[in-house]
UniProtKB/TrEMBL annotation:
Annotated protein name in UniProt: Alpha/beta hydrolase-fold protein
Keywords from the UniProt entry: Hydrolase
Transmembrane domains' residue ranges: none
GO molecular function terms listed in the Swiss-Prot or TrEMBL record: hydrolase activity
PANTHER family xref list: DIACYLGLYCEROL ACYLTRANSFERASE_MYCOLYLTRANSFERASE AG85A (PTHR48098:SF1), ENTEROCHELIN ESTERASE-RELATED (PTHR48098)
Keyword flag Coiled coil: no
Amino acid sequence: MKNIKILIFVVLAYLPFQIFAQDLIVYNSKYLSKPDSTLVFMPKGKSKADQLPLVFMLHGYSGTYKQWDAISNAQNYANEYGFIVVLPDGLYNSWYLNSPLLEKSQYEKFFIEELFQDIIAKYTPNQNNIFITGLSMGGHGALSIFLNNLDKFKSGGSTSGAVDLRTLGSKYGIDVLLGKNASEELLNSFSVIENVKKLAGTDRTFIFDCGTEDQFYKMNNELKMLCDQLKIKATYISQPGGHNRAYWAKSIRQQMNFFKTLI
């Protein structure tokens, strides 16, 4: 792929303690307005020849590719679960979607056509065991990408996800991407709570959760009720907690345990 820079065995000092990241890849994409940085963690003692499972972890609104590492220590998770862990940058407020208004904000196209293909080629994971999850904006993005690309992922996840864009109005940059007067039909077409209907009548499964004190708790409960009505095999975890790092550090372990059971 053109215009990709790879920094191998980089020590990152953005935390109070140092995390050893094996690869930092910078993508210059025709679909994005600026470069996208992605961290990749290989489990200790494993190689690309092992064809390991792989999980993409998407950060939240206003975060960066460093967010999940700061929350969960991605190298430790890679070591413990035996997954290749990939942390892309969502460019602050991309919502991981293809904007119908902004030519250089086509994030899902970038993800699937460039980043995904490049990661598969470089790290040779087991392509039957590829997962995607995320928090908040990244929770919506992870499930959206999963639902739009079921042939590429075994399962998806969301923690504290904003799974219904119809309720956000002009918050969090949605209006910039979809328009200030976006129609209900357009908002439906991008919302997880509508796109989840693609799983009806299938045996595909995913996991999502939300804290009971979270601002997105109501919409996640509504997603659970819809899954029940459609008999979709979703695992939903409702537990005490808010929209914060302490909650996500707990919930991501639950999601990793879930993904591990599917291998």
